[in-house]
Structures are given as C-alpha cells and as structure tokens.
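User: Please check token order:
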Amino acid sequence: MKNSSIPGFASAKCVAAGFRMGAQGTHTSRTLMLSEIDDVLTTVPHAAQRGEFAQAIIDGNVLGKNTASNRRLTNQRLGELYGLDARIPIFRVLQRVWLADPDGRPRSALLCALARDPLLRASADAILGLHVGEELVRSRFVESIQRHSENRLNDAVLDKVARNAASSWTQSGHLEGRVRKHRQLVEATPGAVAFALWLGSLEGRVGNDLLSSFWCSVFDASPHQLREAALRAKQLGLIKASIAGEVVQIDPTPILPPIPSIFLEPRHGEN
C-alpha cells in the first residue's frame, strides 16, 4: 500500500522506528481509541514492558472493559496502533510528548497511528484536503480510501474503514459533528509539532523541508506558526532549534529518550 503524500514512509529508518506497512490495518475494526490510550499512558508505569501493559489491560482491566475477550482484543489493537513497547522508538517519543504536551495529545496519538496503520494513512488526503468548515462527503471519502489502498478493500471492509477513520479524525480534532462531519481548525502545539518534526526527519528531511512534510500538514498552521511551535518545543527540551528569519536549523533527535535500562539488563542466566 502506498500513499504519495508520504514519499519516504517505507524507508529503513521509518521501519526501524516502528512504522507498519502492508495492506491491513487496525481501522478495519477499531478507531484511534484516544480515551483508551490516554488511560493506559497515564495509568501504567512509564518504563513498563509490553507484557506489563498487557497485564494491566487484560488482567488488571484498567480500561474497564466488560469481557475478557474485549480486554484481549483492546490490548491487541492498542499494541498495533501505538506499540506499547519501549523498545519501539515511536512509542518512546509518544510517551514523552504525552507528558510534555497534554493539549496536543489527540494530534500526537493521530501521528503515531498514522505511522502504524496503513489504512488510516489511506484516509489522510481526503481529510487534510478539506477547507476549514467544509463538509466531509462520504462518497468522496470512501473513493479516496479505496484509491490510496490500491483497491484492495471489498465494499464491506471499506465501509468499516471509512466509518472508523472518520471517527478517528473526529477524535483528533480535525472533524466535528456526529452524522454530518465538518472540517475544523487544528492547533499546532509544541509537543505534537516536535513529534511531527521527528517523523519528518526519518524521511531524511532537514531545515525548512521539515516544516513541509506530510506530518506537519496534520496541523492547520503556517510555516511561521510551525516555527513558533518548534521554538516552544525547544524550550520544553524536546528538540534543538535555531531559527533566524527564513533560516531554519532543527534537530529533532533529542525527543527520542534512551531505551529504559530494564531492557538492557541481561536476562537470568546470561552473562
């Protein structure tokens, strides 16, 4: 599956960072699950391993799901969308900006899910191409998803993806309305913008080019507003940035925390 808006999304750096490729995606059955990932990230200890996240969701039922099967499926889907594993770089970045930028959490969740769900990526052009206030026309939305998914989805699956993706873009703040959905303005907050800059750097972008990536197009912001957000991210210690007029130097690498030491400790019986 390809998306022309993300030319370098299948690069080796992107794959190593935690991007997911292929023709399948979580949005065949679930949405962004913003409330669930918020509860998980604010409840489970920051340095938890993947098994500890699973234990909290399935055995501890931190999300309050009614059945064991629902808890297991939720754990699986959240893992698909966000990783829930500190060995995955994109998840470590998500955890960091979640704490640093509470106002930007819906956009940070979206950015992570876009990187990890090919089907959500397939829906992006239709949403980001809308003007503020413009209504999302379902038939056009469905056609766009089908086109970007290379016509691999049958009608029933396509319908589910369209409904779930529309819900996800509503959770992220890009759409409003229950039945008739309209595009609304999305703010560029420092943590989410820093996350977008880091994702753009994985494609090999530098300087001003970072501000024109697919990831930064998630925000309804001018280059000037993005530069201002980048400077606020610098103040938060998320990135390094030097901006003088039109000259932009940005190093997003500080946003990625080191892997927790618990993952580097030898297992029992190892030297």
Summary: Confidence is low (pLDDT under 50) at residues 1-5.
